[in-house]
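seq:
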Amino acid sequence: MMATTVLADLDHEMASTRTMLQRIPAAHLDFTPHEKSWTLRKLATHLTDFPLWGQVTVQTTTLDFAAPQPPKPTLDTAEAFVALWDERLAGFKAALAAASDADLQVTWTATVGEQVVMSMPRIAVLRGMVLNHMIHHRAQLSIYYRLLDVPLPGLYGPSADER
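struct:
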């Protein structure tokens, strides 16, 4: 199946992100490393969106970012972030398991109103805009953790904090 080949690292990357969410320091949710940066809470909440976006990508063919979006949850503990992550990841994996190779080759389009932002096969959206995008923001979270002296988990081998 195409998803197994193109997204072979999905389970590893999702588990690594879950590990990062488990370490969220509740006392520092309002921390930001720079005035242009998001708060730790906003960044971590954004990370919990990626499995949901994966599910939406698999189950729809378009998303209009100009349309009203559901409100973001306000999470206050690592446990709450992980619970939301687990719930959304289960939905994504179920949607992906039900998708055929033909489903994954269907064009998926993101718009802002009438303006097309991107249009590509679902599998490319899952790889680039879901999985790779998630890894990018997870890396940002690792910088927040380093600045706050939160021990970093090893994501691709042991971290300096685990040696």
